[in-house]
Amino acid sequence: MLWPPRTMRTASIMNSCVYRALGLPIFPSSLRESYTLSKGSIFCGQAQTLAKDDPGNQYGIPWSWGTDGLGINVEKVKALLGDDAPLDSWSLLFDPKYAQKLKSCGISILDSPSDTFTAALIYLKKDPNSDNPADIQAAYEAVKAIRPYISQFNSSGYISDLAGNDICIALGWSGDVNSARISAADAHKSYHIKYLIPSEGTPIWFDMMAIPKDAPHPDAAQKFIDFVLSEKESAALTNDTSYPSAVPSSRHLVRPEVLADAAVFPPPEVYRKLVISKPMTAQLMRLENRLWAKLKAD
Fold this sequence. Notes:
It is found in: Periplasm. InterPro entries: SBP (IPR006059), Sperm_putr-bd (IPR001188). This protein is an alpha/beta fold. The protein has 2 domains: 9-65 and 204-276, 3-Layer(aba) Sandwich (D-Maltodextrin-Binding Protein, domain 2), CATH 3.40.190.10; 67-202 and 279-297, Periplasmic binding protein-like II (D-Maltodextrin-Binding Protein, domain 2, 3-Layer(aba) Sandwich), CATH 3.40.190. Helices cover 46% and strands 13% of the residues. It has helices spanning 11-20, 29-38, 44-51, 74-81, 91-94, 96-102, 113-123, 133-146, 158-163, 174-186, 218-228, 231-241, 256-259, 268-271, 282-297, and strands at residues 9-10, 61-73, 107-109, 152-153, 169-173, 193-196, 202-209, 274-276. Helix 2 packs parallel to helix 11 (218-228), helix 7 packs across helix 8 and helix 8 packs parallel to helix 15. The longest helix is centred in the C-terminal third of the chain and has 16 residues, at 282-297. The radius of gyration is 20 Å and the shape is globular.
């Protein structure tokens, strides 16, 4: 079976769990060789990035990936802010002078302290992986400054809200915003949804698969992983969800318009600015969660 059941762990959480496991290999040794062979086509850059926290990529394998960014209703945002709106910057969300104006058409924030505070740290030009409690507090203050203008904290419903014209800006995940864009276009809406990756940089994340060492059916789990990572299924994932697969050899099966979409596959100059979140200490996680609860209660 997969670990954890029915979900795919993002890279930073996977790494935290690996550390809590005291470095013991999750994959049974009997599957190590076939695992190594089956992951041969995985995007080497991603594997190298993950190997910084998972030497030899022994604990998990990337399945898909994406970025955090801003989804906007282009017409509404420009109507409220004008043509000079900073569409290439986190200022569009975190600068109170813009957030105050966008309140009337709806602002949605991911209900995720790690995603939101990391974005705020990047906006503040601080280390997005800072382990300094003062920096986490600064990120909280940045979000608190726009709290009066936030309509909702939402990690799923914002997709339909953005597509349905109920909000005009959302801090969200790339594939979700692209799904909203496609839904609005398919419904022949008069407005356009666009996904923005701020020029200051943004988090990149990976959905991960792993097999626990005590899995009752490890062979079945291995076959499922091999199936999911096949070229055909990997391309279907990207075509259906706008989330890139971690298997680059599948790209010849991806629809040309999806492959050419910079919101799905960021160009090299953008990719270089993407940040992978590192595991947080338990102390920092408690601080982050406590501050997040205060934000939502306000």
